[in-house]
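User: quick one, sequence for these tokens?
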């Protein structure tokens, strides 16, 4: 079992409503987890998750946090949930001659996301996405 699957399974045991949004290796021995919860992500929840994963601290430093305003989008359901929002998508290799796209999520399914750009829409297969995140606009930041 890979590390991400192991962490997801352990979080489900802790609280089935905790979602692992993203797992990043932020250094050679450092892990960064972005989590979400329907009731919000509090310091107490981050502490509970850290305690649940304490054995990982033997080999890694561990940072647990909320997804924040620039929430990573890592799964097809994330793109569907945020239809109509602004997103930045970076790809592993060029799509239509580019690797970076900032636009509105127009559609999303299990295989791809469609991003509306000023020059037209582009469809990006999920397997070609290296990294993606929401881009907050002023009305979202100052709510």
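Assistant:
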């Amino acid at each position: 079992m890979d590390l991400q699957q192991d962490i997801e399974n352990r979080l489900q045991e802790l609280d089935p409503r905790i979602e692992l949004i993203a797992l990043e290796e932020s250094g050679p021995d450092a892990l960064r987890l972005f989590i979400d919860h329907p009731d919000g992500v509090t310091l107490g929840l981050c502490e509970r998750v850290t305690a649940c994963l304490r054995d990982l601290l033997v080999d890694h430093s561990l940072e647990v946090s909320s997804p924040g305003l620039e929430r990573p989008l890592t799964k097809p359901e994330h793109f569907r949930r945020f239809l109509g929002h602004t997103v930045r998508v970076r790809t592993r290799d060029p799509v239509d001659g580019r690797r970076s796209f900032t636009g509105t999520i127009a559609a999303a399914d299990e295989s791809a996301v469609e991003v509306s750009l000023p020059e037209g829409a582009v469809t990006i297969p999920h397997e070609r996405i290296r990294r993606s995140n929401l881009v907050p606009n002023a009305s979202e930041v100052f709510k």
